[in-house]
Amino acid sequence: MKNFTSVNDVADPIGLIKEAIELKKNPWAHNALGKNKTLGLIFLNPSLRTRLSSQKAAQLLGMNAIVMNMDKEGWALEWSDGAIMNTNKTEHIKDAAMVLSTYCDVIGMRCFPTLTDREADYSEHVLKQLLKYSTVPVISLESATLHPLQSLADSISIFETWNKPVKPKVVLSWAPHVKALPQAVSNSFSEWMQKLDVDFTITHPKGYELAPAFTKGVKIEHEQEKALEGADFVYVKNWSPYEPYGQIPEVKKDWLLSEQKMKATNNGYIMHCLPVRRNVELPDELLDGKRSLIPLQAENRLYSATVVLKRILETKKELQHA
Ligand code: AN0
Ligand code: CP
Questions:
Q1: What are the DSSP calls for 15-45, one per residue?
Q2: Residue nearest to atom 3 of ligand 2 (CA)
Q3: Residues lining ligand 1, CB < 6 A?
Q4: Distance (Å, whole) CA 11 – CA 13
Q5: Digit-coded pLDDT (tens) for 129-152
Q6: What is the distance between the alpha carbons of residues 21 and 114, in angstroms, rounded to a whole number?
Q7: Model's pTM, two decimal places?
Q8: How far does Cα 59 stand from its chain's mean position?
Q9: CA angle 207, 210, 212 (to 5 degrees)
Q10: Which among 23, 27, 148, 182 is most buried, taking Cβ atoms within 10 Å?
């Protein structure tokens, strides 16, 4: 694996999930692989899980990690080629990426969408500029439209939990929120679910459609109660619509999940990527209940980051020896 920016960078998503589950049994097994190697992590937005799980993953592989909150501690970056930099942008990504590639063997970046410029966000302009100017592999720590490390952890969690000989029914259920959130977690989850042997449905209010590119061929059910019928896994997530982009149209119906609503499921598990606004997106009763897979998802962020880094380091090694 050269870079990790979406499921499409993975030749064998199921193989990767299984490898992560193996790794989990003996997390320090590969701690010589990253010897004398440096992982650079740059954040343009906040993070708890992604930041710490990536640092810990580096440790598990014997790698050193350096972290920078680029938005707060770095120079203001210019991302457009040919810009005349006479305003508030101090450093061009071309120069910053050259420096980072000199200091680091792998670079991870978190870059949320603007939620105002759909074209720029969906072209992944920021991530693509880093990919263009970095001379070392790049890992997405959540980009404008995708969060593949999260979806890999979610897939690992489903794989580990499900032990029946039939396909599980997985439902991605829109949740209320007080702000406009990115579509990245949902787009990415949809992409990964389409690679697994699951029966996948998305439920959301009318007007909260995701980008067609990520939901093509996926069942969409606008009645939440109907979608929940017989569900084995209910992934709860808020997102703002693709159209009108980044707005939050009023939703009259009650979309907050409850114990009562969960009765329609097949004793379903509850999933959420965190951070969660308690009693806005999900009630305490479900977050703290027995069917919550949320702690497992957070734990599996460690193995999703480790397995991805491991594959990238192995590919680098193969290329060096070729
Ligand atoms: C972000 C999002 O929804 O993309 C990060 C989730 C991992 N969430 C918030 O901004 C609250
Ligand atoms: N789930 C997730 O990516 O969390 P952070 O934003 O805290 O990294």
A1: HHHHHHHHHHHSTTTTTTTTTT-EEEEEESS
A2: 50
A3: 181-182, 184-185, 273, 275
A4: 6
A5: 999 999 999 999 999 999 999 999
A6: 35
A7: 0.98
A8: 21
A9: 115
A10: 148
